[in-house]
Specification:
Blueprint (H helix, E strand, L loop, with lengths): L1 H12 L5 E5 L5 H9 L4 E4 L2 H10 L5 E4 L8 H4 L5 E5 L2 H13 L4 E7 L12 H12 L6 E8 L7 H18 L8 E10 L3 H6 L4 E4 L1 H4 L3
Parallel strand pairs: 1-2, 1-8, 2-3, 3-4, 4-5, 5-6, 6-7, 7-8
Length: 220
């Protein structure tokens, strides 16, 4: 029952306006079902094939979030069921999600991933790429996606000051998005930042969605 206990402790610490994504990548379905039976309905995976296998096997009231880097050619495998794609880091990917969602007569929610870390290895948009996407959205180019906010990952470091600076930078971009008129496909209400190691700091900095894995399911 360790997973249940972990989950209940974390949920008791989260403010009401913060959504918990249980990061279940590499974990067996039995672990996910323990979390499910404890009331968790949102799971995050980083590999589309693994997520699809779990979706096929598990109850259908689960929301599946794709939290990893998405290859364009894999979008078709999740378009039928995915609830939220966290890591949209290019216009090309956005176009592909829109195209595949159309085939299933769905509107897929997405978060735009901003590059806020000082590490070069992290994926994400810069401000110019973000503005380019927002221009396309204004032209109502995408009928089958809805941009519901931003996602970002801080640098992997023990330096809390640096992490806080990066989170606040993302929050300032998010605040700027609030000044743009909303449309059917643009309603930025979600700021996804914070993981097991830094979610409390992320919430202090304005996060509304946290992605927690090891603190629920144990280490990889």
């Amino acid at each position: 029952m360790q997973i249940t206990d972990n989950l209940l402790v974390i949920k008791s610490q989260l403010p009401e306006n913060v959504t918990l994504v249980a990061v279940s990548k590499t974990k067996p379905v039995s672990d996910l079902m323990e979390a499910y039976n404890a009331g968790q309905r949102i799971f995050g995976e980083n590999k589309i094939q693994e997520m699809t296998e779990k979706w096929e096997e598990m109850p259908k009231d689960i929301q599946w979030h794709m939290i990893g880097h998405v290859q364009t050619n894999k979008v078709k495998y999740m378009a039928e069921y995915v609830s939220l794609v966290h890591g949209v880091d290019s216009l090309k990917l956005l176009n592909e999600i829109n195209k595949q969602a159309q085939k299933h007569n769905r509107v897929i929610d997405v978060l735009l991933q901003m590059h806020i870390a000082e590490e070069e290895t992290k994926f994400g948009l810069d401000n110019n790429e973000l503005d380019e996407i927002l221009e396309q959205v204004k032209l109502n180019k995408f009928e089958n996606i809805k941009i519901i906010g931003l996602m970002g990952m801080a640098t992997f470091t023990e330096n809390q000051t640096q992490i806080k600076k990066e989170f606040l930078h993302l929050k300032s971009i998010f605040d700027r998005l609030q000044t743009i008129p909303t449309t059917n496909n643009y309603q930025p209400t979600t700021l996804s930042m914070g993981m097991s190691g830094d979610y409390k700091l992320a919430i202090e900095c304005g996060s509304t969605m946290v992605r927690i894995g090891s603190s629920i399911f144990g280490s990889r």
